[in-house]
Amino acid sequence: xxxxxxxxxxxxxxxxxxxxxxxxxxxxxxxxxxxxxxxxxxxxxxxxxxxxxxxxxxxxxxxxxxxxxxxxxxxxxxxxxxxxxxxxxxxxxxxxxxxxxxxxxxxxxxxxxxxxxxxxxxxxxxxxxxxxxxxxxxxxxxxxxxxxxxxxxxxxxxxxxxxxxxxxxxxxxxxxxxxxxxxxxxxxxxxxxxxxxxxxxxx
Length: 203
Known about the structure:
alpha/beta, Rossmann fold, eight-stranded mixed sheet, 6 helices
């Protein structure tokens, strides 16, 4: 069962939900674009969390600054990076020593621009990184990226563009394409969860 939590990011009170598991490690999950209705209650964010919860891992999802009950305001991805770093550090202080970082859409973009060493994450998962909507940093390297998931009909995260960037980000990362899915995954949540379960927990 998830419980409400709060932590501070650059002085702003950030609202989150934690589900504590007894298995090893946990995950921080970030949500889609705040200016387009994105928040921690997004169904893709919930799907990612449910996979980890079924594996008895601790999950933390939170609202970026300015979203829901989180203080502050939208910061064009800059302040949101601090929110991610703070969330990872907070979860580590809660006793979770191996932390994955997953993001959907805008959340994946924010995560990609967080210094992985500063965040001290074990591995990164991206769901529909919005490569046709927001520019990713030139020469971006993501050594902790292990899995990217996208939909074949996703115009915000076109599979062809993702495949072109993956060798630069991390040539060892795997890309899984869900046939028929668009950016929102309605009708495809079971497939998304099956992919996450297979490549995160059965590899």
